[in-house]
């Protein structure tokens, strides 16, 4: 037990030190070229340590946080678990995740798109959302996964005791989580992919991505092992914790479906989930326990919030119906984007802008990209952003589908993830220093647009 504790403490210390070193080096930089230059200008020990630290920092972003309930659900689903076994299961999950990042990154240099991007097709997201729902309902003891046996035997291996197949299954879940749950696009990731594309150092780039993914998995390793040492193995608490992670898994499924379903449907699903939460918190049960009464208070809050959400949807649906009947939809404020879909259209706009001596702003996005949706909802509709964009020729390129046209665009502009922003000056030259990848808040986007003008 002491050896395991010392090992976890050492891993945590390494993560803290490396992330502290990495923070001022470029974690806040949204320009992937900054980190590509970092690899070129430093020794392997320096950039590998920095990228491990960047991975630790990325673990506290939406890149990795969605994986916490998945790994936690696997750990909680074990019948009997020691700290050592919890650590090994967590390590299998993290290694599966790290290998996937490395292999997917090396393939991306040749495919012109990350494997995660290729996996964001609606039918794939829908299939795995259903899988998570089934797993969640099983954890809630609503039913047990038994049929068909060929399919359920794979899932049931995650809850078996100590055998090698269990570790392989957990590693495979790490692979699936990386490809489906975390289609993450960050400057460190695209920085490495840019380096691979420019220098052709595939194995070196793969090693960097593997080390960075290990850093991303370090907090997961600590969390998973912590559950193994802290959680009771039997009793009511274990049942409640299992139910808690079952509800989290349902939330994961809704979050994934939000990429492909309308907001109205997603809000209804969130409201229904909150009703389930209130039920599992014992809101409708008679109790004399003070602790249970506290849980009932939280259940009441969940039920109230769900009611408010459902009630707020009524005016929206009525308004949409009225607008559909009268055809008098009030146009919301939108950024002055010109939508282009082919490389020929992009080149034509670039030529026109050069002739008019105007700078160009290119935004590459996809409908399934959560960061793209967030920027559309909270950044590009802001008056300051719209006003500043009026001095630019702003082009919006939809890369949602994996077609010959989109692949040609990705190859031309070296697009490895979304969203990505590229700028050209009034003479038609690309301003690589302004290239940005991943989510940018209003202040960051406004600063970029002002520099581009």
From TrEMBL:
Residues 329-453 form the Thioredoxin domain. It is an enzyme of class 1 (oxidoreductase). Its main location: membrane. Pfam families: DsbD_TM, Thioredoxin_7. It is found in: Cell membrane. Gene3D superfamilies: Glutaredoxin. It comes from the Bacteria. Its EC number is 1.8.1.8. One of its GO terms (molecular function) is protein-disulfide reductase [NAD(P)H] activity. GO terms for biological process: cell redox homeostasis; cytochrome complex assembly. Keywords: Cell membrane, Cytochrome c-type biogenesis, Membrane, Oxidoreductase, Transmembrane, Transmembrane helix. NCBIfam families: PRK00293.1 (NF001419). PANTHER family: THIOL:DISULFIDE INTERCHANGE PROTEIN DSBD. This is Thiol:disulfide interchange protein DsbD. The gene is dsbD_1.
